[in-house]
Design goal:
15 strands; Rossmann fold; 9-stranded mixed β-sheet; alpha/beta
């Protein structure tokens, strides 16, 4: 293999064409475009302008032997199958988010990848390449704010007008897309949430389907998770908030992190465990507290963290990291096997809302698929989904 990975782009829509531009603009120096595939003739015509072989589908691209790796920029349901086909063909695989729509198909992809340890398997969680979230994870992992007691993420910056959903027949359908805001807009936040704060034990969700948009799938979500040991979290997302909010709070017993707009983080570090500070505070201290006479630096310090991040740098960085792993074993920013975590959380949120009660993250995957297929049948537009990829 040359010192550049020959990448096959499967799906040449907005994302696939963006990746081609990143590569041609030199943002991914260890990658070159090997071939492109798309089932739509118009997109194949656009792909041909890049001067590389163009194929009608991923099968013919894989059979041609023109690529070392593929990236799957296609509808969500197709990610696992194309990933499996690539790995079985001896081709490295980078799947787009989400890894799939339901855990049973994603687990089949993970099992296939485990059978081919010589191949690189990654997922496009570009937000893991955001230096702000990398630093936040480091602070949490190093215990700087102590044990997590509560997390809250309000992410409603996804405003989408009705016309957005009417541009494609598959969009915002159970059979075509597999869900709404949880599988389209918010997978990155679901991944970051559990990547930084840990995987919860259970979830209870109130989900609105077609609440403010004429769609079958969810357009507003409020979920409460239980981490065990009294620690809880909430996740709120929607597509009808024109002003939008993006605010993550992580409260620990020795501090707190508040992230605004995924751009700025304020980190508060207590001088001691919060309970110890409380136990040491006498009535005279309490009176001073109520009068505003307490110097806050007596109890905590604060740091504001902010990074500059150029548009496209996070995606191109994941592509470069993926290729580096192929070429020399550089550790992956986002191993593909971890893609199942966000899918499992989204599935649990859906299932809790469908059943009307709290659901364990170790839920019945067959029950979830049966409930999903029930909704696909009611649409009458798409075939039901099998257990595997």
């Amino acid at each position: 293999m040359s010192r550049k990975v020959r990448l096959g782009i499967v799906g040449f829509g907005a994302q696939g064409s963006a990746y081609a531009k990143f590569i041609e603009d030199g943002l991914v120096p260890n990658v070159e475009i090997g071939a492109i595939a798309d089932v739509q003739a118009a997109r194949r015509e656009a792909a041909a302008e890049h001067g590389v072989p163009v194929h009608e589908d991923h099968e013919s691209l894989l059979a041609a032997g023109e690529v070392d790796a593929v990236v799957t920029t296609v509808p969500h349901y197709l990610h696992p199958q194309i990933g499996v086909d690539a790995l079985r063909a001896g081709v490295h695989a980078l799947v787009e988010k989400p890894a799939g729509v339901y855990t049973k198909q994603v687990k089949e992809l993970n099992e296939c990848a485990a059978q081919h340890p010589e191949l690189t398997f990654a997922i496009m969680f570009n937000q893991r390449n955001n230096p702000l979230y990398q630093r936040i994870k480091q602070i949490v992992d190093d215990g700087e704010i102590g044990a997590i007691r509560r997390t809250n993420w309000i992410i409603t910056t996804w405003w989408r007008p009705q016309g957005y959903y009417e541009q494609s027949a598959w969009r915002a359908t159970w059979g075509g897309e597999g869900g709404g805001v949880l599988v389209n807009q918010a997978p990155h936040q679901l991944d970051l949430w559990q990547w930084i704060c840990g995987v919860p034990k259970s979830v209870y969700a109130k989900v609105a389907y077609g609440f403010r948009r004429d769609i079958a799938v969810e357009d507003e979500v409020t979920a409460v998770v239980d981490y065990g040991g009294g620690a809880t979290g909430t996740f709120v997302t929607a597509v009808h908030d024109l002003a939008g909010t993006d605010r993550l709070e992580i409260l620990g017993d020795r501090g707190k992190i508040v992230v605004d707009g995924s751009k700025t983080a304020t980190v508060t570090r207590l001088v001691d465990d919060e309970r110890a500070l409380s136990d040491r505070m006498g009535m005279d201290d309490v009176r001073k507290l109520f009068k505003g006479e307490v110097d806050p630096t007596t109890y905590y310090s604060q740091e504001v963290i902010e990074f500059e991040s150029a548009w496209g740098a996070q995606h191109s960085g994941v592509l470069e990291n993926f290729a580096a792993n192929v070429l020399d074993g550089t550790p992956l920013l986002a191993p593909g096997s971890e893609g199942v975590n966000g899918v499992r959380l989204a599935n649990a949120i859906h299932l809790s809302s469908w059943l009307g009660h709290e659901v364990s993250l170790d839920f019945d995957e067959d029950l979830y698929l049966a409930e999903l297929n029930k909704r696909i049948r009611s649409e009458g537009k798409f075939p039901e989904r099998p257990a595997g990829a």
